[in-house]
TrEMBL record:
Lineage: Eukaryota, Metazoa, Chordata, Craniata, Vertebrata
The name this protein goes by in its record: CMS1 protein
Domain of life: Eukaryota
GO CC, one annotated term: nucleus
A Pfam family hit: CMS1
Source organism of the structure: Quiscalus mexicanus (Great-tailed grackle)
Region (Disordered): 1-38
Length: 202
């Protein structure tokens, strides 16, 4: 009986090791097939037409199309986040000084998770200087708290997730009229290797 008892956990250990090895292979295969490349306007334009194509008329889809002039150059993956923002927004100091509206931000950064939002906030330190940044995600922050902050304070940059930003816009807590820049964190992948645009809810 003791021999049987000893042989069982050993078998389990072997099978778990094999399973782990298989998973690692799959991840590396996926990463090799989809190497990160700079986003282009066509990426977002195609995504919009795919998403709305089924339930919109031809005229409505035409109205949804964003012209190439709406887009700034994408990060060519050689820049840090701060240096990229400096390149696309050289007049940031002037924009920041002239921004006086509450319930709004000059720059809105959208990414797939709360943790990624915090990462991006840390990595933009050199760019943002002394301007105010608001966290627009659901993790540990209630929507009412964010609504109060937007109503009472003045913020220059908002960093958050699409779900929470959408909820704030729908409740008139966040106004996008004075937003000049919208940055999409296009290439970053989560633990499941999904980009923001691969998540069905987004």
């Amino acid at each position: 009986p003791t021999e049987c008892f000893l042989s069982q956990p050993e078998e389990k250990q072997e099978s778990t090791v094999k399973a782990k090895k298989r998973k690692k292979k799959k991840i590396s295969d996926v990463l090799q097939k989809s190497a990160p490349k700079p986003g282009v306007p066509a990426d977002l334009q195609n995504l919009l037409s795919q998403h709305f194509g089924e339930n919109r008329s031809v005229i409505e889809i035409e109205e949804l199309k964003l012209s190439d002039s709406c887009f700034l150059p994408a990060n060519d993956l050689t820049h840090s986040f701060s240096s990229y923002l400096k390149e696309i927004c050289p007049k940031w100091a002037k924009l920041r000084r002239s921004h006086k509206e509450k319930k709004s931000v000059v720059m809105l950064v959208l990414c797939s998770s709360a943790l990624r939002s915090l990462e991006l906030i840390k990595s933009m330190t050199a760019f943002k200087g002394d301007c105010r940044v608001i966290k627009l995600f659901a993790k540990h922050i209630k929507i009412k708290e964010q609504m109060n902050m937007l109503e009472k304070g003045m913020f220059h940059i908002g960093v958050g997730t699409p779900g929470r930003v959408k909820a704030l816009v729908e409740q008139d807590a966040l106004c996008l009229n004075s937003t000049k820049y919208m940055i999409l964190d296009w290439n970053w992948r989560d633990q499941k290797l999904r980009r923001m645009m691969d998540i069905p809810e987004v």
